[in-house]
Write a structure and sequence with these properties.
The protein starts with 17 loop residues before the first helix and ends in a 6-residue tail after the last helix. The chain has 153 residues and is of the alpha+beta class. The chain contains 5 helices and 4 strands; from the N terminus they run ααβββααβα. Strands 1-2-3-4 form a 4-stranded mixed β-sheet, sandwiched between helices. Strand 2 and strand 3 form a beta hairpin. The longest helix has 24 residues.
Amino acid sequence: MVKQSYVRDKRSPTPLNEAVSRVMSSNKGVDTKPELILRHALREAGFPGYRLYWNKVPGHPDICYPGKKIAIFVNGCFWHRCPKCNLPLPKTNNEFWNEKFQRNIDRDKKKIMALELEDWTVVTVWECEIKGDLKNIVRTLSDLLNSRSDPNH
């Protein structure tokens, strides 16, 4: 049996530890655990009918209610630099990671601004909030969803 070697995507500097690179590269951009948890909770609360990564609006929100013009981004605390968690930077390649995280933050701001310019209400939900107080997050989102009528109905 031939052992398959791990192949990096070359978008980041060569790590000192291949295991770290493997873990970092395995992170998903869509259908993350926090997204799945929040979507399930929204369905349970009576709010199905959302669109996922809807490409008809700027930024492709993670969860989108087009009729109510509500866009929800579910941000991972590490990759999007949660202001509540204040997570440490990786120990090596600091310049790369500082630039990477700043690009993520800038991209997030641009997505939000573009949606708001089109009169969308944008909500960012952090991974730590979902882990810590899902009930409150769903209550807040339910209040917002209930306050908006669908102009198409």
